[in-house]
Amino acid sequence: MECEYCGKKEAYGFTCHYCGKRFCSEHKIPEMHDCPYVSLVSKPVNPRKRIKKSPIERVDDAIFWMDKDTRVKKY
Questions:
Q1: 3-class SS at 33?
Q2: What are phi and psi of 67, to 5 degrees?
Q3: Which domain does 29 fall in, by range?
Q4: Considering its fold, how many domains does the chain have in total?
Q5: Is residue 15 part of a domain?
Q6: From the record, what ranges are coiled-coil (predicted)?
């Protein structure tokens, strides 16, 4: 299999889900081979969107901000 981006020959190639071309392990990600179709399907990221945390992460954050005397010891 020959990479369509760099011409490198490998035993196993990767097919891009967007453009359908075959690439080596170095260029298998659409951003690495300048895939023309990736910008059409990717959604813009909203920087103001709040990242949701799991309940365990919220408890860990609360424990971190407590006073040293009121913290629960983790075993």
A1: helix
A2: -65, 155
A3: 1-42
A4: 1
A5: yes
A6: none
